[in-house]
Design goal:
Length: 323
């Protein structure tokens, strides 16, 4: 039943995405000139931007499914990005991405360890990690922007390749591959089902013998690793690493997950739905920018998140009453 509801919701948000694209195509139309919103380069930019956010949001989705929350994803992404960029600038390109991944995973494991040991709400711990990671990113760079020249890394990870005669951004291919693996892991593996059970009812999961502390380390470590992967793609795509990168992406990642079918109560979520949600928000931001109304993007994002959560709460209460 849950799988059927999630499938219907995924189809619903795909319909929302198509309607959104059609709306901005009409609003951005300029008589006698090519539609700027539908230009190939503009669409490729949307896909690239969605890929970076989508990678980070995959980790956020797993954490939400497990009954947690992560407010540090944007800051951890920025920290890992400046670590990768700084190592590459120093001539250590071979170690840059692996070290960045280790930093992200370490941030997640530290977060989980504090949650487990101090029995603190994830909201408080990840809020603290958000400040620690952002401050650490500033310390690594001294506040400057690390700019990288074009290289094999920037072309191989941040560039485009031809697939069946179509120009496809490499970040999108990475994103799709990771999303498919994550979706299969969450829905079909024993560990993924345990994560879902943890979010559904932590006390019941504990009584059934599931290793609660270990599962939390897995999900937050995975969340940190996904933020690090997104940070590496960010460096390859934009060619820079900066301590101010990905500001506010915490809300964007959570919004994408919630819009894609994740419940903030835990126990339910869709990786594929999250990916579509990430595209919806990036299309929204791009469309509003072209209309000269980019200042409204965060306002609309917040309204969408609140509306979706309220509707989800009503649906959950109705389901409990019916049961």
């Amino acid at each position: 039943m849950i799988k059927r509801v999630l499938a219907l919701r995924e189809l619903g948000i795909v319909a929302v995405l198509l309607a959104e694209v059609a709306l901005f195509a009409v609003l951005c139309r300029q008589p006698g000139r090519p539609n700027p919103f539908l230009q190939p380069e503009a669409l490729l930019n949307v896909v690239r931007d969605s890929a970076v956010l989508g990678l980070a949001a995959i980790g956020t989705t797993v954490i939400i499914v497990a009954g947690g929350i992560d407010l540090s994803v944007g800051s951890v992404l920025a920290l890992c990005a400046v670590v990768v960029a700084s190592l590459m600038e120093a001539g250590h390109a071979l170690w840059a991405v692996p070290v960045g991944l280790l930093v992200g995973i370490a941030c997640g494991l530290i977060t989980a360890s504090i949650i487990n040991a101090a029995k603190l709400p994830p909201f408080i711990v990840t809020l603290g990690m958000m400040s620690v990671a952002r401050g650490s990113a500033f310390l690594v760079t001294g506040g400057r922007t690390v700019t990288l020249p074009e290289s094999t890394f920037t072309h191989a990870v941040g560039g485009n390749i031809m697939v069946a005669g179509v120009l496809v951004p490499v970040p999108a291919l990475i994103w799709v591959g990771v999303a498919l693996l994550a979706a299969m892991w969450l829905s079909r593996s024993r560990l993924g089902r345990a994560v879902t059970a943890l979010g559904g009812n932590e006390e019941a999961a504990r009584l059934s013998g599931l290793p609660i502390a270990r599962l939390k380390r897995v999900v937050y470590g995975l969340g940190g690793g996904m933020a690090a992967m997104a940070g590496s793609v960010f460096v390859a795509y934009y060619g820079t690493g900066q301590s101010t990168a990905a500001g506010g992406w915490e809300l964007d990642a959570i919004a994408a997950a919630v819009l894609g079918g994740a419940s903030l109560n835990g126990g339910r979520g869709s990786i594929i739905g999250t990916c579509v949600g990430a595209v919806i928000f990036r299309v929204l931001q791009r469309g509003l920018t072209m209309l000269g109304a980019s200042d409204y993007s965060q306002v609309i994002t917040g309204i969408v998140v609140v509306a979706v959560v309220v509707l989800d709460q009503f649906a959950t209460r109705r389901a409990h009453r019916a049961g």
